[in-house]
Fold this sequence. Notes:
Blueprint: H1 2-29, H2 34-51, H3 59-78, H4 88-107, H5 113-122, H6 130-149, H7 151-159, H8 161-166, H9 171-212, H10 216-241, H11 245-264
Helix pairs in contact: 1-6, 1-9, 1-10, 2-3, 2-4, 2-9, 3-9, 4-5, 5-9, 6-9, 9-10, 9-11, 10-11
Amino acid sequence: xxxxxILPFLVCLILTGIYTYFGLHVVERGIIFVDLSLAQMAAxxxxxxxxxxxxxxxxxxxxxxxxxxxxxxxxFTLTRMKEAQLPQEAIIGIVYVVSAAAAILVLNQIPEGAxxxxxxxIGGILFTSPKDILIIFTLSLLxxxxxxxxxxxxxxxxxxxxKAIESxxxxxxxxxxxxxxxGLIVTVSVRIVGVLLIFSCLIIPALCAILLVSGFxxxxxxxxxxxxxxxxxxxxxxxAFDFPAGASIVCSFGLLLGITAILxx
Length: 265
């Protein structure tokens, strides 16, 4: 069993590390479903690549996915305005449903389209390869270092946008960089873990941490611990009861959130 789950566990650890960080930002911004939208845009890009005959393992398909994720990043950057008539969460939801529908239309035109739609939702984490681990780890490290270096700017535009404006920080530029780096991680992970697990890794550890402790650093630590526990529990249940791994980990995240909410009371 250990040999079967070691690579999926490693990818869970890496994604928990980077997504918990982004999750604390998106929860603070109140844009909970932005990851689903970006993941769905990246999946639509991958589907378009398949339509043009590009294989899932070819680098060009990542370029298609990242290109669509950048388009999503541009939309979310332009729609973040303090006095906008339309709430940004509505725009994010619309982008998600339209890109999901478009992906279904595209995948319906190629052989094994139904199987690809299933992979888009729950991924294929048990089939993670060492090459996948290397790619995700390298990009997560680079994105993490970039955010660490410019952490004050990213924290200001998420936690205190008024101070960011007073400080002369170009909000749209740093918003765009936030979404593009986020989209880069989504692009390389959506094929492996699917949009449902990406959402769980992003939001649930952050929510649990917010319920339990205060302060960005402490919440990051607690979120990482929650992500590790959920990954272990989900992968163990998958092996013990022959559950689909991705769905099993998602349910473990949900169970831990429920337990945390009860303990918080």
